[in-house]
Inverse folding.
């Protein structure tokens, strides 16, 4: 059990804070000491404040006469209201505050239920209860109460690169589990895209989603994290990165992308993974056999399929080199299209997006529609691995691990993969020009 103690001079503010929790049905008043309690679980803030002031001496030199204490049991502890009340009274007694007027509130606004205590620390004689060594005395008392009531030790556990990563337990403290998973994955693995990041997170039932948009005139770029079930379905409300820690922020993850890219290239990890995957593929009889043989080599492979069963993405997670690599990073023969042809016996045709007719620059290629192959729209070349024609132009991305399905509730912020602001602005401008040209003249 973790105790947090704050000293202050705003008694009314502390009462309002806890009273608002109760008014929003996110808590209740459990018990009081020397303060009126009607037993309803609610509080009359003004009445409580007047009761406190009757115990406040008219003259005192204490600048901070009140205390606000929170007692936080381990998330796995399941306590009744009677248990919480007994713990609070015993804690106050052992802290030397048993004779002081105080209120005990239970907060239920988060999964980890906990209690708050608002108390005076000044007696009727004007003398304050000493706060010397409060931290150490409180820590000893909470350890004693844990032993007495058979509670879990709620010490903050240090996370190291050797700490094992486990799947999310949906019945436990989701925020703590998601935070630990994100932190450990970031410490241990190398990945260069949000798709690769999600591939490794998916092994432990966690998913990250980028949120981009504009709120109150300001651009917003962030990350949210979800706990999922074994089928990858979202199982709880999302957690903003800011609630988990700086290590989970978008800036931290994008910085990790850059560092990972340098390390992977400098240390030749791609070649080592490619060699193992190539060897296993040569000995495999099908996709399931390929997956099982890679697993035996301590490499996980994640295939992503459309609703029709077509493979649109593949990612390799090499636990030997601690690298997460989209198939296309290993070579064309390990891309999603290559595996689609190998395992499903067909070469998928790209989905072509219509491009409006526009004036072209001197090189003959419209702005925003060039490809890294150097081919203009409509041209084809031959895939050297399978002898199939390949379409060039504005096509839906193969998304070898970078494809992020839309999550309900986040569509307003998520621009989607492959978004190019300049290209979209140019596209809209040309559409307006074409519509304007079709207006009838009178």
């Amino acid at each position: 059990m973790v105790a947090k103690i704050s000293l202050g001079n705003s008694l009314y503010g502390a009462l309002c804070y806890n009273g608002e929790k109760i008014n929003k049905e996110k808590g209740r008043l459990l018990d009081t000491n020397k303060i009126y309690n009607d037993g309803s679980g609610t509080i009359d803030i003004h009445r409580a404040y007047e009761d406190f002031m009757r115990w406040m001496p008219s003259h005192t030199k204490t600048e901070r006469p009140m205390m606000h204490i929170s007692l936080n049991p381990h998330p796995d502890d399941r306590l009744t209201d009677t248990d919480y009340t007994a713990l609070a009274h015993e804690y106050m007694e052992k802290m030397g505050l048993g004779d002081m007027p105080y209120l005990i509130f239970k907060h239920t606004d988060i999964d980890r239920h906990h209690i708050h205590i608002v108390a005076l620390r000044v007696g009727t004689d004007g003398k304050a209860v000493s706060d010397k060594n409060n931290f150490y005395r409180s820590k000893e008392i909470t350890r004693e109460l844990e032993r007495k009531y058979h509670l879990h030790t709620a010490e903050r556990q240090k996370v190291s690169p050797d700490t094992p990563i486990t799947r999310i337990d949906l019945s436990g403290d989701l925020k703590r589990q998601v935070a630990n998973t994100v932190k450990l994955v970031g410490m241990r693995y190398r990945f260069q895209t949000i798709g690769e990041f999600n591939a490794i997170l998916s092994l432990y039932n966690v998913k990250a989603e980028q949120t981009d948009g504009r709120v109150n005139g300001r651009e917003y770029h962030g990350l949210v994290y979800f706990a999922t079930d074994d089928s990858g379905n979202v199982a709880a409300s999302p957690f903003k990165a800011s609630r988990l820690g700086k290590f989970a922020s978008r800036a931290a993850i994008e910085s990790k992308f850059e560092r990972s890219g340098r390390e992977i290239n400098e240390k030749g990890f791609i070649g080592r993974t490619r060699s193992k995957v190539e060897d296993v593929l040569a000995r495999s009889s099908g996709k399931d056999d390929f997956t099982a043989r890679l697993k035996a080599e301590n490499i996980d492979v994640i295939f992503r399929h459309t609703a029709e069963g077509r493979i649109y993405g593949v990612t390799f997670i090499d636990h030997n080199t601690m690298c997460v690599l989209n198939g296309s990073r290993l070579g064309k023969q390990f891309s999603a299209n290559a595996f689609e042809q190998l395992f499903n016996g067909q070469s998928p045709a790209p989905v072509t997006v219509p491009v409006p007719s526009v004036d072209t620059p001197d090189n003959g290629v419209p702005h925003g529609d060039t490809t890294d192959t150097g081919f203009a729209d409509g041209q084809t070349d031959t895939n050297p691995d399978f002898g199939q024609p390949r379409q060039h132009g504005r096509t839906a991305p193969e998304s070898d691990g970078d494809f992020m399905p839309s999550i309900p509730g986040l569509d307003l912020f998520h621009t989607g993969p492959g978004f190019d602001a300049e290209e979209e602005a140019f596209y809209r401008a040309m559409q307006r020009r074409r519509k304007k040209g079709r207006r009838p003249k009178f």
Summary: DSSP finds 13 helices and 13 strands in the chain. The radius of gyration is 30 Å. The first strand starts at residue 2 and ends at 8.
